[in-house]
Each structure stands twice: as C-alpha cells, then as structure tokens.
Write a structure and sequence with these properties.
The protein is α+β, with helices and mostly antiparallel strands. The chain has a single domain, classed as Rossmann fold (3-Layer(aba) Sandwich), CATH 3.40.50.2300. It is built from four helices and four strands. The chain has a two-stranded parallel ribbon with strand order 1-2. Strands 3-4 form a two-stranded antiparallel ribbon. Strand 1, helix 3 and strand 2 form a beta-alpha-beta unit.
Length: 105
C-alpha cells in the first residue's frame, strides 16, 4: 500500500512522513484530487486541512477525497483513519499517475 501526502507545512509533513515513511512535494490538493478521479482511479485519498471552514472539507470530498481531517488532529485519529482507508480500499490496483511535472508510481 502506498500513501500520498500533500502538505504545505514542513514540520507537519515531516511528522507525517515519520509516521508513515512517505512524502510528496506540495501542490494544489483539489487539482490533484480532480486529476486522480478523472482517471477513474480508486486510490484512497485522505485530505488534511488547516482551514476550519466546512466549505474546504466539502470541496475536498466533492473533488474525490475519501476522508477529510481538519488540523490540528490527534495522531491516534490520523492512524485510525489511515487504517480505515486501507480496510475499505484493499482491492485497488497500483498505476502510474501524472500531474504536471509530478509522477506517482
């Protein structure tokens, strides 16, 4: 299972990298979600947002996120949600996705 992290706060990204041992350079998450879903990809996606407004979470879910977790968040809840994503999406197939100059394998 591969996990994509798109996070603009360096310290949080490093913490998540430590928790999951993976990382990706930051880009516009809504555009990434739209691209992933336009290719009918079943890749599970969790969006982490610093914005407290429901509109930000609704936009992420509408663009294709499976989960949306507002910051700050508990690491226990984060890990529990990642495990839930893995349980719900254990049948997707890996593919190479491209977005601008970023290539996800």
């Amino acid at each position: 299972m591969r996990i994509l992290i798109a996070e603009d706060e360096v310290q949080l990204a490093e913490g998540l990298k430590y928790l999951l041992d993976t990382m990706m350079p930051g880009v516009n998450v809504i555009k990434v979600l739209e691209t992933i879903r336009s290719e009918r990809s079943g890749i599970p996606v969790m969006m982490l947002t610093a914005k407290a407004e429901i509109e930000e979470r609704v936009a992420g879910l509408g663009a294709g996120a499976d989960e949306c977790l507002p910051k700050p968040f508990s690491t226990r809840e984060f890990i529990a949600r990642v495990r839930a994503l893995v349980r719900r999406n254990d049948n997707y197939t890996d593919r190479i996705l491209s977005f601008g100059n970023i290539r996800l394998d």
